Amino acid sequence: MAIERILKDDASEEKGERARMASFVGAMAIADLVKTTLGPKGMDKILQSTGRGQSVTVTNDGATILKSLHIDNPAAKVLVGIHISKVQDDEVGDGTTSVVVLAGELLREAEKLVASKIHPMTIIAGFRMAAECAREALLKRVVDNKTNEEKFKMDLMKIAKTTLSSKILSQDKEHFAKLAVDAVLRLKGSTNLESIQIIKKPGGSLKDSFLDEGFILDKKIGIGQPKRIENANILVANTAMDTDKVKIYGARVRVDSMAKVADIEAAEKQKMREKVDKILAHGINCFVNRQLIYNFPEELFANAGVLAIEHADFDGIERLALVTGGEIASTFDNPESVKLGHCKLIEEIMIGEDKLIKFSGVEMGQACTVVLRGASHHVLDEAERSLHDALCVLSQTVNDSRVLFGGGWPEMVMAKAVDELARTTPGKRSHAIEAFSKALVAIPTTIADNAGLDSAELVARLRAEHNKEESNAGIDVISGSVGDMSELGISEAFKVKQAVLLSATEAAEMILRVDEIITCAPRRREDRM
Amino acid sequence: MALAFDEYGRPFIIIKEQEQKTRLRGLDAQKANISAGRSVARILRTSLGPKGMDKMLSSPDGDVTITNDGATILEQMDVDNQIAKLMVELSRSQDYEIGDGTTGVVVMAGSLLEQAEKLLERGIHPIRIAEGYELASRIAVEHLERIAHKFEFGENNIESLVQTCMTTLSSKIVNRCKRQLAEISVKAVLAVADLERKDVNLDLIKVDGKVGGKLEDTELIYGIVVDKDMSHPQMPKQIQDANIAILTCPFEPPKPKTKHKVDIDTVEKFEALRRQEHQYFDDMVQQCKDVGATLVICQWGFDDEANHLLMHRNLPAVRWVGGVELELIAIATGGRIVPRFQELTAEKLGKAGLVREKSFGTTKDRMLYIEHCANSRAVTVFIRGGNKMMIEETKRSIHDALCVARNLIRNNSIVYGGGSAEIACSIAVEAAADRYPGVEQYAIRAFADALDAIPMALAENSGLQPIETLSAVKSQQIKIPTRVMQENNPHCGIDCNDVGTTDMREQNVFETLIGKQQQVLLATQVVKMILKIDDVISAAEF
């Protein structure tokens, strides 16, 4: 008798070994894809979108690559799903590539173990023990310079440089590291990266990028209005400055003669004039509105010598209100109780060919703007991503100031501790723990490989070096040898490494636990004829 | 195909378009049904127990779910076969009634079907098998009652409740922090429980999740969490002793339902209308202020002008709050939902000890916490996790744990887990079988064998030798009678976690009595129903 089909026709079901293999293969394929972007000598990828215009992105940012892929394999989707997850990108911001590579290596090792008849649950138990042990090992070797401000700043610089060195900005990493550190230090411990505004302007070279201490609004100043205001009182508003409509529903104008139309028009104008007068009564010399300002009121503002800026988008308005300390106003009847924003100087500046408005000397010292310059949009986009990564890492480091060395050093430290654990653990789990350490070593191996170095030789030397107590050895990609990471000034944030370790383990565990994949029949699309 | 002929030898058409339909009859039909039921059970079998594996399900839209919750797997599998749909129903009804043990019930039904197939092959009539199963299930349920323990807990003694919830959670992916989640679930249930009536309204527990943070950040909030922020970025982020006006009318000029037109034909009218408009906004805000509200929660949007006025008059407001959330807030704060500004009075305001806005991560994610409400019986479990998949799975796990805690409050009898209850029942049913004359005896014995399937699956999933382990445990149960009960020792189960003892009392693995009883009864019922089908007529594909 034929076995009854219980699923729909197009659905598929994969079981046991096959399911596991499908998920291993999928996950490893993703890992191999981003593997070559790891490390300072990592290569970039070109991503061409399928949408109209086939826009092209050039990047080596793991998160961006993974985000743009269309994936069919469910396991690969899990891996991607975890890493473009908000945690890694928002709260850590960097290390997405490392997570995927580590998870891929873990699964590669796990596959071998499964093949030699070790139950996945045993492997998971081993991985968990190993991850915990690795974390402990890192914790023992962290350096915390929170108390020493000078040294702490040095740490931040090192971290920024290390993060940036794998990106397009590596040419000018000194410059950008300083930029990023300055920007983050202005935040004074808050992780709210919104106060750091990044403006991209094509033209010039990357070196011309700069950090500005004020706030820059990408808008033009109305014609005939002052281009420079000192000690500005700013009113930030969200109000209609076109024909202020009657909001009562159903109202309409019905007249029977031209004269009356003219009357009403005059009344309307009068109304606008009154509104402008009320606004002016606040004693301001700069008015920023979220909505359009029509010609007529603009003229009135110009006459009064007030700088009026229209159509600042919502973000711009909120940020401006935040940095200048004003409140966003929509009614103007009580000038005395509306809080105005202040800044020392408003001026129009030129960046490239564009005019921008700069507010400097604002009350809240936290905000700042980074202006990126570069040859093309691709370069600028990539630069922004790189800078974003660096800023995320730095802002986290300001809160959790524990720092590790980079260049494969943490992986070797962890591998060593995990190896020791494997030797002292009885039972099948020790195989899994050993596999974990092998997977860890794969990261320095990949870094060396990507740099075109002899990875086998280097990693072996590194291992020997780490057998000594308190070794600071890591891979020096530039000279192609094993070097002292503390001398080379290559550092990474502990928080990033920890997140990489934990989420890679978690991802591997999630995929290992699966023993069956059921794919439902795709939803029938309506045929569009 | 059954054909009837009339007196002239012409065939009757009994079923419309007979040729296009497939039809299975008699033993074939039963066997086909049984094999369909079993293949559903086979899918779930490996997910049973603390070491159960997960299933990866890819939905019609390509979203991936990873879970080992029986009800969810079956729900998302999108089965086509009618019998398989019955099995899905089965696990769903276990989910509704008990909330836990959804995998176990399907596995059990599967093994009952498997046993029934053997009996069918020996020529026993399906109805006799069904009757035998019925008898056996009654024996099993009674026996469960006998081996059950009363189990003590109080407001301050929640340890035992936590332990039970931990048993449930240990089979899920969240078992990394099962202790914490179990405590959260128990506290949540106790907060809303009516201990005198022994009833818990789970509607009062809202399980909400937001991507970000880590699982350890999951928390229990005595109050409500709303995924909204203050309508104006500069309104205060924290309000002590808030009086909340809950409105379902917008802060906008009125829109009468009847069709109307306001004609403006003179300048005076234009001016008058403008003043009116101003007045209108002013009045709305004033009315809220007059009754003493310190926070306005509104179902609709605000006009820019109204928003600024609210901010100006120092009256924080939240807009676009969904209907369900609005109701929850009303319940929690003891306020009334007010549809018109004119109807606002001081009595209709809700009270909350603390309302605060909390932001997450580096991005602009804000949530509103309403805590210390007048009616503290609404709580929220707020889940944080790395990604959406994790949060969904945690939600399901918490739901299971909440149900278990609720069942214990309703009926505080427990049986021991790890398959020990099934083994004990199996022994009891086996012993009882001999007392029944007639064919049912075979069916009852088959039922006992079927009960063994659950511990067997548990052992298999834990990487133990199933047959060896089961027989060892079974003999242990019979060999060591406890002195207190003068009977067999029903606490021996499968040592899934490799702790070293088979005594489930020491391992603290409990399950609720009603949960177990329900499993046995539901599984038997469905199997009986499947056995009674002897003809399957299915329409041709079209």
From TrEMBL, chain A:
CDD domains in UniProt: TCP1_beta
Compartment(s) where it occurs, according to its Swiss-Prot or TrEMBL record: Cytoplasm
Matches recorded under Pfam families: Cpn60_TCP1
GO cellular component terms given for this protein: chaperonin-containing T-complex
Keyword hit for Cytoplasm: yes
Xref: PROSITE patterns: TCP1_1, TCP1_2, TCP1_3
Regions annotated as coiled coil: none
Keyword vocabulary terms for this entry: ATP-binding, Chaperone, Cytoplasm, Nucleotide-binding
One Gene Ontology molecular-function label: ATP-dependent protein folding chaperone
InterPro entries: Chap_CCT_beta, Chaperone_TCP-1, Chaperonin_TCP-1_CS, Cpn60/GroEL/TCP-1, GroEL-like_apical_dom_sf, GROEL-like_equatorial_sf, TCP-1-like_intermed_sf, TCP-1_chaperonin
Domain of life: Eukaryota
Major localization listed first in the record, in broad terms: cytoplasm
NCBIfam families with a match to the protein in the record: chap_CCT_beta, thermosome_beta
Function field: Molecular chaperone; assists the folding of proteins upon ATP hydrolysis. Known to play a role, in vitro, in the folding of actin and tubulin.
Family to which this protein belongs: Belongs to the TCP-1 chaperonin family.
Name this polypeptide is given: CCT-beta
High-level lineage: Eukaryota, Viridiplantae, Streptophyta, Embryophyta, Tracheophyta
UniProtKB/TrEMBL annotation, chain B:
GO-annotated cellular components: chaperonin-containing T-complex
Keyword Nucleotide-binding carried by entry: yes
MF-aspect GO terms: ATP binding; ATP hydrolysis activity; ATP-dependent protein folding chaperone; unfolded protein binding
Subcellular location field: Cytoplasm, Cytoskeleton, Microtubule organizing center, Centrosome
UniProt keyword terms in alphabetical order: Acetylation, ATP-binding, Chaperone, Cytoplasm, Cytoskeleton, Hydrolase, Isopeptide bond, Nucleotide-binding, Phosphoprotein, Ubl conjugation
Record InterPro entries: Chap_CCT_epsi, Chaperone_TCP-1, Chaperonin_TCP-1_CS, Cpn60/GroEL/TCP-1, GroEL-like_apical_dom_sf, GROEL-like_equatorial_sf, TCP-1-like_intermed_sf, TCP-1_chaperonin
Pfam families, per database record: Cpn60_TCP1
Catalyses which reaction(s): ATP + H2O = ADP + phosphate + H(+)
PROSITE patterns recorded: TCP1_1 (PS00750), TCP1_2 (PS00751), TCP1_3 (PS00995)
Role description: Component of the chaperonin-containing T-complex (TRiC), a molecular chaperone complex that assists the folding of actin, tubulin and other proteins upon ATP hydrolysis. The TRiC complex mediates the folding of WRAP53/TCAB1, thereby regulating telomere maintenance. As part of the TRiC complex may play a role in the assembly of BBSome, a complex involved in ciliogenesis regulating transports vesicles to the cilia.
Subunit structure comment from the entry: Heterooligomeric complex of about 850 to 900 kDa that forms two stacked rings, 12 to 16 nm in diameter. Component of the chaperonin-containing T-complex (TRiC), a hexadecamer composed of two identical back-to-back stacked rings enclosing a protein folding chamber. Each ring is made up of eight different subunits: TCP1/CCT1, CCT2, CCT3, CCT4, CCT5, CCT6A/CCT6, CCT7, CCT8. Interacts with PACRG. Interacts with DNAAF4. Interacts with DLEC1. Interacts with SPMAP2.
Protein family according to the UniProt entry: Belongs to the TCP-1 chaperonin family.
Protein known as: T-complex protein 1 subunit epsilon
Species of origin: Linum tenue
